[in-house]
Design goal:
Distance between the termini: 31 Å
Oligomer: single chain
Structural class: mainly alpha
Order of helices and strands: HHHH
Shape: elongated
Mean pLDDT: 83
Number of strands: 0
Strand content: under 5%
Largest sheet: none
């Protein structure tokens, strides 16, 4: 079940996930970004969930909404210069 969940999440957040990965590796990345990504990863791999995955459809849908929303929130809170560089790099791919 974990593999299915991770593959579904990856298909939803592929583009934003790449932007987030670049922002994390950038020397100008703020400290809160690393903590936020660590907490998000813990949520994804944790068996504790807001809505249990045992519930058909609803258990996975909450992850498909919360995780991309959290990633977009973190990307939107980046400093303007870093956010612009991340967008430029994403557009170049």
């Amino acid at each position: 079940m974990m593999i299915k969940r991770l593959s579904a999440l990856w298909s939803v957040v592929k583009g934003d996930g790449r932007k987030l990965a670049f922002a994390l590796r950038h020397p100008a990345a703020p400290g809160w970004l690393k903590g936020g990504v660590a907490l998000l990863l813990l949520y994804v791999i944790s068996p504790v969930d807001l809505l249990p995955d045992a519930l058909p459809v609803i258990g996975v849908v909450d992850d498909l909404i919360l995780v991309p929303a959290a990633i977009r929130l973190m990307l939107s809170r980046l400093p303007a210069a870093l956010r612009d560089e991340v967008e430029r790099r994403a557009a170049a791919r």
